[in-house]
Design a protein that fits this description.
Elements lengths: L20 H14 L5 H21 L6 H26 L1
Helix pairs in contact: 1-2, 1-3, 2-3
Length: 93
């Protein structure tokens, strides 16, 4: 997944507004629900997709980055790392 939401970064309507509760809740719900998903590869891919999108915003629109953006990047990186650790442990056995 490339930078989908951030393709037109000059348009205010396309910005990833994490101060909007629906947007913030959508991403945090993913993080909460990901722990219940059995397909680890699917979970990792979803986390990676959101992480890619967040980092695209960070690069393309640093003026719009808020504390919530950085918090979600950190949470997504942690979620992805935990999933990969589980996947690699399973593959080692």
């Amino acid at each position: 997944m490339g930078c989908i939401l951030s393709k037109n970064v000059n348009s205010d309507k396309n910005r990833l507004d994490l101060d909007d509760e629906d947007t913030f809740n959508h991403i945090t719900d993913f993080i909460k629900n990901a722990s219940m998903e059995n397909d680890l590869f699917h979970r990792r891919n979803l986390a990676d997709n959101w992480l890619t999108e967040m980092k695209c915003w960070q690069l393309a629109s640093p003026q719009w980055m808020t504390e919530r953006h950085y918090l979600l990047i950190e949470l997504l990186e942690r979620e992805k790392a935990e999933i990969e650790q589980i996947i690699y442990k399973k593959n080692d056995n």
